[in-house]
Amino acid sequence: MRLEPLRREHIRRCVEIERILFPGDSPWPAGAFHAELDAGGYYLVALTDDEQVAGYAGLAIAGVPGDWETSVHTIGVDPAYQGRGIGTALLRAVLDRADELRAPVFLEVRTDNDNAIRLYERHGFTRVGVRRRYYQPSGADAYTMKRQARAAQEVAG
Question: Which of 43, 61, 98, 136 is the most exposed place for a label (fewest CB within 10 A)?
Fold first, then answer.
């Protein structure tokens, strides 16, 4: 497995994975992935040895140098590849990019997604709020989570 930047030819497979993972909550269409790339987001895919997309993650970046803010907009791993550390590797890679920018990181996660919440907490995220009925059309609630910006010495250490 290796990580590399998401290319447009990967988007069809990302959309397929979205439909598997989020069938009741408006999975991202291809246009959403294209728009994120057009906006300059930092998006990665996890590729298998035979070049298949096993997972993806994206980090939106806003602000100006010295005052960046980032947000994990999406992360997903094909169920056939879950439990192999791919989601952790993708998360760490986008967090590394946020650390390079010394930016705080925000995300939303379903309140009933215990595995994802534990993963985020292990990586320094804390719950800072609840968004009622955030996911549509299911109406599921989401926690807003935040990881503080990492200073240069923290990143190096």
Answer: 136
Active site residues: 108, 120
Per-residue buried b or exposed e for 76-104, using 16+ beta carbons within 10 Å of the residue's own CB:
bbbeebeeeebbebbbeebbeebbebbbe
Report in angstroms the alpha-carbon separations of 3 from 86, 93, 113, 154, 156: 9, 8, 24, 24, 21
Helix (H, G, I), strand (E, B) or coil at 55: strand
Which residue in the block uniquely carries the two structure tokens 């320094």?
A: 124
Q: State which residues of the chain have pLDDT below 50.
A: 152-153, 156-157
Half-sphere exposure of 67 (CA within 13 A, CB side): 2
Query: What does residue 3 show for φ and ψ, rounded to 5 degrees?
Result: -100, 140
Tell me the average pLDDT of the chain. Answer: 93
Question: What distance in Å separates the CA atoms of residue 86 and residue 88, rounded to the nearest whole number?
Answer: 5
- pTM of the prediction? 0.91
**pLDDT one-digit tens code per residue, 136-149:** 888 999 999 999 99
Q: Map out the domains of the chain as residue ranges.
A: 2-156
Instruction: Name the fold adopted by 2-156.
Output: Aminopeptidase (3.40.630)
